[in-house]
Amino acid sequence: MTTVPESRTAVSPGQRHLLLDPGMDLTLRPMRYPQFFDRFKDAIKNTWTVEEVDLHADLADLAKLSPAEQHLVSRLVAFFATGDTIVANNLVLNLYQHVNSPEGRLYLSRQLFEEAVHVQFYLNLLDTYVPDERERFAAFAAVENIPSIARKAEFCFKWIDSIYELRKLRTRADRRAFLLNLICFAACIEGLFFYGAFAYVYFLRSRGLLHGLASGTNWVFRDESMHMAFAFDVVDTVRAEEPDLFDAQMRQQVRDMLAEAVDCEVQFAADLLEQGVSGMPLADMRDYLQHVADRRLAMLGIEPMYGSPNPFAFMELQDVQELSNFFERRVSAYQVGVSGTVSFDDDF
Amino acid sequence: MTVTREQAEPEPRRQVMQVRKRNGDAEPVDVNKIVKAVERWVTDLDEIDPLRVATKTISGLYDGATTAELDKLSIQTAAELIGAEPQYSKLAARLLAAFVDKEVRGQQVASFSQSIRYAHGLGLVGDDTAAFVARNARKLDDAVDPAGDLRFEYFGLRTVADRYLLRHPQTRLVVETPQYWLLRVACGLSQTPGEAIDFYRLMSSLAYLPSSPTLFNSGTRHTQMSSCFLVDSPRDELDSIYERYHQVAKLSKFSGGIGISWSRVRGRGALIRGTNGRSNGIVPFLKTLDAGVAAVNQGGRRKGAACVYLEPWHPDIEEFLELRDNTGEESRRTHNLNLANWIPDEFMRRVEADADWSLIDPSDAPELPDLFGEAFDEAYRAAEKKAVRTVKARDLYGRMMRTLAQTGNGWMTFKDAANRLSNQTGAPGNTIHLSNLCTEILEVNNDAETAVCNLGSINLSAHVRADGVDWDKLRATVRTAVVFLDRVIDINYYPAEQAAASNPRWRPVGLGLMGLQDALFTLRLPFDSAEARDLSTRVQEEILLTALETSAGLAERFGPHPAYAQTRAAHGQLHPDLWGAQVTQVERWAALRDTIAAHGLRNSLLVAIAPTATIASIAGCYECIEPQVSNLFKRETMSGEFLQINTYLVDELKARGLWTASIREQIKRAEGSVQGIAELPESVRLLFRTAWELPQRALIDLAATRAPFIDQSQSLNLFMSAPTIGKLSSMYLHAWKSGLKTTYYLRSRPATRIQQATVAVTPAATPIVAVSDDEALACSLENPESCEACQ
């Protein structure tokens, strides 16, 4: 472990720490951001392992897909092959460094673990779905050779690089740059790219296809929901501490960034759906992405840009309590952490 | 699949969107044609907008799609509107029925008898049924109810179409319509066409359905129609263990659900005399069982399923309780096995007294699995001096509770109540060693005999009107049901000799119930009210009484079952007597006793309440004796995702002018709870509570009060959003004290959930979605559905 003495010298006695103050705060008590610690504990209860997902049942479905649907799935898994790794990289290179709260870093450590599990899940997925080795290598290299995926990757790299050189958030401009990076990963990458990808998976599942992929995705989706919630929590905290950071210019930058992300994702959708998939027209996918983008803006307190309603009834189903049959799939409902001791007069 | 790198050349856009017909011709998409196809089905549905379905279908289509794709999309489109208007469920079902019909007719099948002949030629239907249908073709063809499919809801019919209808072995096209399927099931169990038609009508009305194995296999070449098999523990030797693997595989292959005990096999560290080595214990053997069960594919419908039972004095009990954990060494995890504790009263007494508990190796006390009651207590105490280890009873009980909370598994089933309160344990040497995959079957077995049970369930909602239960109709249904459950025993194909050895001797059947919640909604009785408890008990008394009457009548004609002399009934003790329970129909019970004294019983056991997961979906009612889990939830099955709305609530809201988009949103946001809807009066909110919002004590008390009229047991799920060890240990102690023989899953909810994607966000809201104790009631969640091998 490295100790960074600066953490103690950066703030003079009596002065309140701010979340984005440079340094490596080590003191958990008194806890400044207990809500981050709660999120850390909740995340642990969601532990799942890749071995719990049975992907082999999907192979029979894959053989049944039309060429258009096969194309959709192959592009989709190619995106999954690298998506979570990119998020993990940004977490390590940028977020962990600058969110100066030990409890916040606990959560980020946990998130990093979850991203690793997701990477492993998609690794497993591709190994199972793409038995031919050469095709498999091509899928993993999608960032380089599939233009619609390369464009999304470039968008991500641009924002990783935007603060890569920043070692410390010394100025107001530094902090704004950091916030934009954070918002980009929460609202655009986890909150839009992944939500777009999940929509294809749930579309297929609503047709009774690829349950293995869907059950793993359920767990990934649950984790990603938490990641996004944490990131927005950090944004809200910083805004409360330093309200002037979030001005009109920043709002405009967020809007521009989201608009670019929507464009990226729409061109990806155009590629996925180019052969015509019954029940998922490109126009609906565009509406859906715009609808999601508006929601991200709403979470940041910014006026919606598109006003598009959600066109996908199967996504509304994702908001509804799930009952699933034990004989068909394993359920993602169980809790890992349980507390208490044996007693006989508790209320039940 | 292949990863495509090149994009195909897009075809030039046509002016008007075209579809390709089944014969290959292209034609322009015509909205009026779709509207007409919808209108045909909605004469009795006043809330449907055919144009809306048609335009939405077309907007989802792509140029050059096939008409089959168009048909499928229109079904899907109708199904997606169910959330706003439940009547679309009926429409989607009818469009699907029309689609299936087209598929069957497309193979030159125009009648029931033709479908049987065709399927027989394909090797699907058995010779006897084919001959029976050929002999009675005209009568049977005329019996098909053309309106039968109108009764299905979408989810039910989708399940039927995807999994129950016979399919062509190569083309995978369905070769029978839903009504042909039910008539085929009836013919497979009938001796006369009149009998077949009566049974078909009962099933087609959805007032009663046999369990899934019967619905899958009746009339086919392999008529394995039993749901449950209870396999005794292997003997403590290698040959016996491997024989059990083989037996389980054979039983699994034809849709049976397996319960198997493992209490006789020695624990880790015990001496193996043959090699002078030490045993690795039961876990590696269960790992092998796990893989074996997963490898067996039940006709492509689902993987095999099994539940392992272990008594808590076994030295490997702690490792057993960890078999389903999702952390730890994979070689010691069994993700496909269900786990149950088979608990003697002595253990619970020691938990209560905070006493020690001895773990004893079965090789040191091989008699323990065969004993119950005082004989067990004595033998156990005597064996304690040979204990491998001693633990605090409460520590072990706490670990059981932890397993329940973390995995929902590790079901608590009670050995002494199960044996003391059974008709089959009337003679020494007959012991119930375990329950089944769904904890509702309790039957004696042994090394050479595997207990078998075939099941069916009455849909109570079809026997209730707003003014009460239609008792005559209920009795009539029970009589028909018992006759056909009994019939299965003789026609059944037994996949293992041990099963064939047991079933004809004891002839047990399990007549169950579903739709209790529907009945309570219809009668407007809150689930935890005294009136609900009374109704459920009276219904159960009627079912057991009528079932016993029918079985005594069968005994009069065909003789009692061969092992009758070994039953308690042979000594004049009927099931309510074992409980010391009050009966209300005193005269009928007295007359029944006389009949039984004169003729005996054809069946040693008659009533068991199975989970009914799948058949309740087909019948469109709530599962077995369970409260609703949510007013709004979805089901995920191999067929896709399905929104389920409480239509009783929808009717109530409509009557009050409250069925609005904003209320729907509110229910969705509250994850299926209506407790926050202030516009609803308190009494209505009480009626529409979910399983998570009901006191679990009430569920247990309801079960315990009806238990004297269930001669086997009931699959009783318990629900707790945020379980703690304290709450669980209190709850299960109460369940044991109230005399329940078995409990089933502990349902709980995940710690956090996926962020809602379509419910409006409030600006700058922090969308944390953790479920804490306090907010758990308002925020309901994913929850597993119950067993299906049984139903």
Topology overview:
The complex is a heterodimer of chains A (348) and B (791).
Chain A: H1 6-9, H2 34-45, H3 57-64, H4 67-98, H5 102-129, H6 133-140, H7 142-145, H8 147-162, H9 172-206, H10 211-241, H11 248-272, H12 282-299, H13 313-316, E1 321-325
Chain B: E1 18-20, E2 26-28, H1 31-39, H2 50-59, E3 65-66, H3 67-80, H4 87-105, H5 112-121, H6 127-135, H7 137-143, H8 154-164, H9 178-188, H10 193-204, E4 208-210, H11 212-217, E5 228-231, H12 238-253, E6 257-261, E7 268-272, E8 277-280, H13 283-295, E9 297-298, E10 302-303, E11 306-310, H14 317-321, E12 337-343, H15 345-353, E13 356-359, H16 373-383, E14 389-392, H17 393-407, E15 411-414, H18 415-420, E16 451-459, E17 464-465, E18 468-469, H19 471-491, H20 497-506, E19 509-514, H21 516-522, H22 530-558, H23 575-579, H24 586-599, H25 613-619, E20 632-637, E21 640-645, H26 647-655, H27 661-669, H28 682-687, H29 696-706, E22 718-719, H30 725-737, E23 746-747, E24 783-785
Parallel strand pairs in B: 1-3, 5-6, 6-11, 11-12, 12-15, 16-19, 22-23
Antiparallel strand pairs in B: 1-2, 4-16, 5-16, 7-8, 9-10, 13-14, 17-18, 20-21
Helix pairs in contact in B: 1-2, 2-3, 3-4, 4-8, 5-6, 8-25, 9-10, 12-13, 19-22, 22-24, 22-29
Written account of the structure:
The complex is a heterodimer of chains A (348) and B (791). Chain A is mostly helical. Chain A has one domain: Ribonucleotide Reductase, subunit A. In chain A, 65% of the residues lie in helices and 1% in strands. Chain A has helices spanning 6-9, 34-45, 57-64, 67-98, 102-129, 133-140, 142-145, 147-162, 172-206, 211-241, 248-272, 282-299, 313-316, and one strand spanning 321-325. Chain A is globular. Chain A starts with 5 loop residues before the first helix and ends in a 23-residue tail after the last strand. In chain B, helix 22 packs parallel to helix 24 and helix 22 runs parallel beside helix 29. Mean pLDDT of chain B is 91; it is low at 1-14 and 762-791. In chain B, the strands form 8 sheets. In chain B, strands 4, 5, 6, 11, 12, 15, 16 and 19 form an 8-stranded mixed beta sheet that branches. Chain B has a 3-stranded mixed beta sheet with strand order 2-1-3. Chain B has 5 domains: 17-104; 108-204, no CATH class; 233-246 and 258-421, no CATH class; 451-614, no CATH class; 630-690, no CATH class. Chain B contains 30 helices and 24 strands. With 791 residues, chain B is of the alpha/beta class. Chain B is 42% helix and 12% strand. The chains are: A mainly alpha (348), B alpha/beta (791). Strand 1 of chain A pairs parallel with strand 20 (632-637) of chain B, so a sheet runs across the interface.
